[in-house]
Amino acid sequence: SLTSIIRDYNLDSIDIDYEHFQFDVDTFAECIGQLLTTLKKNNRVISIASIAPFDDAQVQSITKHFGRGCPYNHVNFQHPVD
């Protein structure tokens, strides 16, 4: 599992590249939300979610899903500058 990999290798971060996610924005937000919630619940594997949307209006809009009732200690929205 991802939790095991994080612990076994003493990782302090993971990077999820979602530039080519083939589903709608709501499905993406649900999947990422479930992943982060699971990692947080499993003995606090994570405490910060850092989200770096790219220049795509549809994918960029997923950031709104992470602001409501967020179960994380901190969410850092990173918006790259060209």
Describe this structure in words.
The termini are far apart. This protein has 82 residues and is an alpha+beta fold. The protein has three helices and two strands. It has a two-stranded parallel sheet. Residues 1-82 form the GH18 domain. This is (wild Malaysian banana) hypothetical protein. It comes from Musa acuminata subsp. malaccensis (Wild banana).
Alpha plus pi helix count: 3
What is the strand arrangement across the widest sheet? 1-2
Low-confidence stretches: none
Report the end-to-end length measured between terminal Cα atoms: 35 Å
The outline comes out as globular
The pLDDT mean sits at: 66
Structural class: alpha+beta
Q: What about the largest sheet? A: 2 strands, parallel
As for the number of domains, it is: 1
Q: Would you count the extended β strands for me?
A: 2
Helix fraction, binned, reads 25-40%
Strand content: 5-15%
Task: Give me the Rg, rounded.
Answer: 13 Å
InterPro entries: GH, Glyco_hydro18_cat
Organism: Musa acuminata subsp. malaccensis (Wild banana)
Domain GH18: 1-82
Protein name: (wild Malaysian banana) hypothetical protein
